[in-house]
Every structure is written in structure tokens, then in C-alpha cells.
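Lab meeting, item 3. Inverse folding demo.
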């Protein structure tokens, strides 16, 4: 498991492109038959992926890094499959997870195993894990069951559907909030006007992006914005003090996840476009 440290906005102002990517960009989420994990000290979120192809993938890591005897001893996890149909086995119970379906795994779950139904169309399980102070039931949910809403319009190139999956009014968790935003064809902007939420961090994972397209992800303080070029199935860490927005060369989908002081989806500090620099 790779470790990333928390950062101060005064330091980030001085980062060049290479350093910015080293600290916040996660270029590889999925690798065949591997578990890929990045631990960020921004609210101790873990971002990663499991792609079982020819064999099952087991959720594990160096437990000394987490100070526990098993991965979810003091953590919870949200899983969204962006690949072919797969199965997640939690303490012996199997959950079939199809494309764009979500599974929440509660604190105290000991054995988590990822499998694909068809090796020719392997599952790609995107993972977000946060520390937990309370255990909630392992629960599957789908986009059809989610609390969804339409935002934006084609005139501003930001017509999109937001699906809230793990949140205060949906699948319950200790602190993890997780969902998915789908941009409609002809739309490129997400989360603009931008905002910050100083009480929690956020991570984005962009996908459904053509190979010849990119998303320009904007981050930083509103008065000191920076950008990171994102490609398909890559993630980015957003500190609590940073905006998080993006514009693509085509439409795309992204998964967002948050951890921090509360589970209120609408807890954000708006940033006027005229104040961005």
C-alpha cells in the first residue's frame, strides 16, 4: 500500500506539475489479479481497486500500516464495480455486483474476497475506505435505488445526473459518503461553480472516458488554482481546503467519495466563479 502525506496550501502553491501529480494523482487503480491501494493522510482515506481476472483477489495489506489485525477492524469500505459482473464475498456471504452497482462493507468484516464472473469481461472494483467508529450492516445498492438528481444544463455544458449511494439518506455508514455523477453527451464540466468543504476531504475517480480524451481536473485554493490532467480510470485526492472540479474533452462519469466530520452531502462552501484565479 502506497502512502501519501497531508499537505498545506502554502506548500502546494510552489509545486510544479511533477510534484503535484506525485502528491495527489493516482494513475493506476486497476491491475489484473492485483489489489492496488493508496493511503492518504487526508482524513486517512484509502483509495484503490481490485481487478480479479484469472484468480480471486483478497482484501489485505501490511497491517502494521493500519495498526490492526485485519483490514476492516476499525474501518468501513465502499465498493463500486465499473467493469464486468463480479462477486464480493464478505465473511462467507456472496454479493453479486454488476456494473455501476455499489456495496457498502461495515466495520468488523474480517474476510473480503473479490471475484469476476467472466475472465473475458473482468470486474473492476473501485474501493474507498475510511476509519469507522461504529459498525453498520453490509448493504448492496444500485443506481436505480439511489437518491438521484439532475443538475446543470446543456447551455453551460454541465448537464449531469448525481447518484448519492452511501450517505445520510441512503446506505448508512460511520463517515464515508460515496456516489457517482454521470455527464450527459455534449457536456464536459463538473462541479462548476466550484466549492470547498473544510470539514472533509474528497476523492474523484474518472471513468467512461475515451482513450483519446482527458479531463482537466482543477484543484487548489480558489485564489491559487492548479490543474492535473486525468485519463480514464484514474483518481485524484482533494484536500479539504481545495476546490475539486473538472472539464473534459468529452463527457464522462466519475465516482466521488468523502470522509470527515459529517455525512451531509450539502455541507459545502460555495466559490463564485468571479473569485477563481
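The presenter then showed the designed sequence:
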Amino acid at each position: 500500500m502506497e502512502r501519501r502525506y497531508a499537505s498545506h496550501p502554502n506548500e502546494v502553491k510552489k509545486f510544479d506539475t511533477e510534484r503535484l501529480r506525485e502528491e495527489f494523482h493516482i494513475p493506476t487503480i486497476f491491475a489484473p489479479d492485483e489489489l492496488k491501494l493508496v493511503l492518504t493522510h487526508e482524513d486517512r482515506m484509502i483509495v484503490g481497486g481490485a481487478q480479479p481476472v484469472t484468480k480471486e483477489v483478497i482484501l489485505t495489506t501490511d497491517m502494521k500500516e493500519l495498526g490492526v489485525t485485519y483490514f476492516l477492524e476499525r474501518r468501513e469500505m465502499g465498493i463500486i464495480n465499473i467493469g464486468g459482473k463480479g462477486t464480493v464475498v464478505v465473511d462467507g456471504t456472496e454479493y453479486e455486483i454488476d456494473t455501476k452497482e455499489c456495496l457498502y462493507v461495515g466495520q468488523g468484516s474480517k474476510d473480503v474476497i473479490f471475484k469476476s464472473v467472466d475472465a473475458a469481461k473482468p470486474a473492476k472494483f473501485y474501493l474507498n475506505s475510511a476509519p469507522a467508529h461504529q459498525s453498520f450492516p453490509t448493504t448492496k445498492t444500485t443506481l436505480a435505488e439511489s437518491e438521484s438528481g439532475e443538475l446543470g444544463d446543456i447551455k453551460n455544458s454541465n448537464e449531469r445526473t448525481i447518484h448519492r449511494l452511501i450517505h445520510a439518506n441512503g446506505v448508512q455508514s460511520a463517515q464515508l459518503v460515496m456516489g457517482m455523477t454521470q455527464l450527459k453527451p455534449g457536456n464536459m464540466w463538473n462541479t462548476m461553480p466550484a466549492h470547498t468543504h473544510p470539514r472533509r476531504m474528497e476523492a474523484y475517480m474518472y471513468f467512461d472516458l475515451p482513450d483519446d480524451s482527458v479531463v482537466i481536473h482543477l484543484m487548489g485554493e480558489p485564489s491559487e488554482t492548479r490543474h492535473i490532467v486525468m485519463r480514464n480510470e484514474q483518481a485524484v485526492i482533494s484536500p479539504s481546503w481545495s476546490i475539486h472540479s473538472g472539464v473534459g474533452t468529452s463527457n464522462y462519469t466519475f465516482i466521488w467519495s468523502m470522509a470527515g466530520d459529517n455525512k451531509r452531502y450539502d455541507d459545502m462552501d460555495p466559490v463564485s466563479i468571479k473569485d477563481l484565479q
